[in-house]
Amino acid sequence: MKLYDTDLTSRLLLGTAQYPSPSVLLDAIKASATQVITVSLRREMPQGSAGGFYRLLQEANCHILPNTAGCHSASEAITTAKMARDLFETDWIKLEVIGQSDMLAPDVFELVEAAKILAKDGFKVFPYTTDDLSVGERLLDAGCDVLMPWGAPIGSGQGLRNPDRLRAMRAHFPNTPLIVDAGIGRPSDAIQAMELGMDAVLLNTAVAKAGNPVEMARAMSMAVRAGRMGYLADPMERRDMAVPSTPVFGLAELS
Amino acid sequence: MISIAGAGVAGLSCAAELCRRGVQVEVFDIGSGPQDNKSSWFAGGMLAPHCEGETAHGDVIALSQGAAAWWSQVTQVTQNGSLVVAPPRDRAELTQFAKRTTGHRLIDGEAIALLEPCFAGQFSRALFYESEAHLNPRQALFDLCAYVQSHGGRVHYNTAAPKRVDVDCRGYGDHLPDLRPVRGEMALIESSELNITRVVRLLHPRIPFYLVPRGHGVYMIGATMIESPSMRPISVRSLLDLLAGASVLHPSLGEATVIETGVGLRPAFSDNRPTVIQKDGCFHVNGLYRHGFLLAPALARLLADQFSPIFKQETGDENNRKFHPA
After folding, report:
1. What's the distance, CA A74 to chain centroid?
2. The pairing of beta strand A92-95 with beta strand B46-47
3. For this UniProt entry, which residues form the secretion signal (chain A) (predicted)?
4. Which residues does chain B have within 8 Å of residue A54's beta carbon, measured at their own beta carbons?
5. Residue of A219, A242, A169 whose CA lies nearest to A199
6. Interface residues of chain B, partner chain A, Cβ below 8 Å
7. Does pLDDT of A6 surpass 70?
8. Which positions in chain B touch A56 (Cβ < 8 Å)?
9. Dihedral (CA of A177, A182, A186, A189) sign
10. What band does B307 get if pLDDT is binned at 50, 70 and 90?
């Protein structure tokens, strides 16, 4: 999988918030075999320098995808993105502009606006968006090469609420990397996303808040691989009539 | 004479435990009094091993055994248990919290009203952790100090520790590798309308919130956990979250007065477990994270075992030993 100019073998992107401890987080990262971790910048920002937590994250040896979690306007998100670029020395940014705080739904208008400005400034923008096709179009026009549609509200663990829309996105954007971001709760949700032909899955709470985050990270890693393999293997179509799977040519001729 | 750097909850608890065993101690602190040990001064003072077990390592729960009894010898401990509630739409949080903790029973609205009459009609179910307790951390620091002094120990405020000390309890001020600061913000509110007598935790998917009664209508509400070394005063967003939590817990708290806010840096190792490390002849008692008052007694005992007559033999490199308290 190629995200902007970077080749990746793992199709699981992992968030780094809410783990019981940083060492559990590091173990989960290892178990997940992820190559990209997201880091929330907004509240945890030390003044100027990176704190102990950030040093720990660098030990993980992954690409860091800073995010603008908690931003409610294009201008806030742009400021945060620039801080992130300085701090992590990366032009990747997961662009999140929240419009509605109960559902943490993206504000797609501000999102497109921020994406335009950031892309022009040289950022490689990973926009957290809805499954709306026209918003996806606008984001590509704004300069995004990747789309990250939600599966369900952030942190809700509800799984894919509208798989048909994601299928439509896949059909509509055949050559754009699509990453389901948010809503995954269980390994089966990740498998479903991958079977729909999504390129990758980004999740955080499903692992961080599991009773055993490290085991869940491993399970998610296997699920993403299984789902991808299933998609590539071209699954059979569903049909209504049962068909015996016993070979016919071995049966006795009774006439 | 054992010298101890740092007069926060870790340093004073170590001093008190050593004094209790008849060892002479001297404590040094650059602050002018207990109020300058921010992490301890602004702590919640919950002795709630079961509730903490939701996310804490198993060590923390094991080490918490006997904490309330230890504190009772030094300061006033309120043994009222703690109550965990959730707003009706977040009932799933209560189910998950129950699944991941022990020492609780599910009680209904009537039972809640018997425990805390002001919550009558407010919540229809709660988890009750009967064996848990709480104390007032500020009073506890003064009481620890008095306990040490009455046992012949000395506590020097406004005094930097000598270059070489036997025990270092300066928290994040002791620059150990792998130690990081976790910023915590809290507020004190005062309400003459309500009389809540035990720790109450409100489960919320976004803002885990707790309230600790301090008596005379004063309640501590907390606390954020932010990976940052910043000591700037509480942010608007954090304060909004805490106050929103308070008014969800009880509408009358919307009328309470905010009398103080505070910020401290909790010292934590990357596994969030406390440790006693022996390094170049000095014992470092550190990494108590958000469990200072809960874990200090166990760490103090572990430390005192190194000096008191019943010295515990450990194997390993003489100059660099780590005692995992499990």
Report:
1. 21
2. unpaired
3. none
4. 227
5. A169
6. 55-57, 99-100, 179-181, 205-206, 226-230, 232, 235, 237-238, 268, 270-273
7. yes
8. 180, 270
9. negative
10. confident
Domain locations in chain B? Answer: 1-79+131-176+271-314, 82-130+180-268
Better-scored residue on pLDDT, B326 or A207: A207
Give the pLDDT confidence of B146-204 residue by residue, as tens digits: 999 999 999 999 999 999 999 999 998 888 888 999 999 999 999 999 999 999 999 98
The CATH T-level fold of domain B82-130+180-268 is: D-Amino Acid Oxidase; Chain A, domain 2 (3.30.9)
Going by the DSSP 8-state scheme, the letter that residue B171 receives in this structure is G
Rounded to an integer, the average pLDDT of A230-254 is: 79
Would you state the structure tokens that stand for residue A149, as one six-digit string? 């549609």
Give me chain B's average pLDDT, please: 90
Band of residue B312 on the pLDDT scale cut at 50, 70, 90: very low
How many Cβ atoms from other residues are within 10 Å of residue B243's Cβ? 18
Q: What is the pLDDT of residue A46?
A: 52
Is residue B237 within a helix (H) or strand (E), and if so which, with residue range?
helix B236-249
Q: A26-36, pLDDT tens digit by residue?
A: 999 999 999 99
pLDDT tens, position by position, A69-78: 888 889 989 9
Say what the pLDDT of residue A45 is. Answer: 56
CA distance A109 to chain B (A): 24
Closest to B212 (Cα-Cα) out of B20, B77, B109: B77
**Domain made up of A2-233: CATH architecture:** Alpha-Beta Barrel (3.20)
Neighbours of A76 (CB within 10 A): 17
B1-79+131-176+271-314 has which fold?
A: FAD/NAD(P)-binding domain (3.50.50)
In this prediction, residues A94-107 reach a mean pLDDT of 88
DSSP state of B90: G
Tell whether the model's pLDDT for residue A131 goes beyond 70.
yes
Q: Which residue has the higher pLDDT, B134 or B231?
A: B134
B227/A23 touch (CB, cutoff 8 Å), yes or no: no
Give me the amino acid identity at B114.
L
DSSP H/E element including B154 = strand B154-156
Residue in A40, A53, A101 to test binding to B, most B beta-carbons within 10 Å: A53
Q: CA-to-CA distance for B65 and B70, rounded, in angstroms?
A: 10
Interface pTM, i.e. ipTM: 0.73
Instruction: Collect all residues of chain B within an 8 Å Cβ-Cβ radius of residue A51.
Output: 180-181, 227-229
Phi, psi of B211 (to 5 degrees): -130, 130
- Mutate: best of B89, B207, B228, partner A, most A CBs <10 A: B228
| 3-state SS class at B128 | strand
Q: What residue type is assigned to position B66 of the chain?
A: G
Over its C-alpha atoms, chain B yields an Rg (Å, rounded) of: 20
| Residues in CB range of B221: below 8 A, 6 or more apart | B186, B187, B188, B189, B209, B210, B211, B212, B242, B243, B245, B246
Going from N- to C-terminal start, the domains of chain A cover 2-233
| The predicted structure's pLDDT at residue B317 | 47
